[in-house]
Amino acid sequence: MKVSLITVAYNSAATIADTIQSIAAQDHPDIEYIIIDGGSTDGTMDLVKNAKSVTKYLSEPDRGLYDAMNKGVALCTGDIIGILNSDDVYQDGQVISDVVRMFDEQPIDCVYGDLVYVDPEDLSKVSRYWKSGEYHRKAFLNGWMPPHPTFFTRRECYKTFGAYDLQFKTSADYELMLRFMFKNHCSTAYLPRILVRMREGGQSNENLINRIRGNKEDRQAWVKNGLNPRFYTLTMKPLRKISQFWSRPGQEG
Q: Tens of pLDDT along 71-95?
């Protein structure tokens, strides 16, 4: 099974080498690695061009993170698509093979797992643990969502249900997963282990302004899809993150 992985980058020279290396270290034999750069000026593309594990790359101005992701999706030829941010790394070299095994063993459309937030300088130092838990479709009504960097889906889902909606500036990933999993009932399975290490404070983390904007966009995501959240759904969504600060992974962390 061929897996297409996308990394979106912009002036990511300080971190993208770790991201590229974590993908080069994967033991799955059929990976297509695509990097979409927004026109970096800091040497990011020098690192990308010299990386043997990179299959395709594109460097040009874009309309933001999700526009770049859509460019990557359009270039994918794999059966499965995953997205790894340019300041994140996979937990170990078996992540993609474990994900593929899930798709091979059951007729599913999507797979997700757990994520840890780590110190920007010391990737072994965990500050937060996002344990996703088993999938129940109605969990979306309780403010649940899977960590987007751990989300893998069949390319056919993008073809059938569309890519990232550029109306959303901070919540297009939430809207896409809501659209795929909740609205269109894409079959989904949970891989109960850490898949991604995300640097705290990186471009993929939320700041307060983005969180306020994101809460408004979360509501718009339900409305645009013709869905009705419960009165507490969008309040619960940020509150669910609190437990991440005292939860800790077991031996796998």
A: 999 999 999 999 999 999 999 999 9
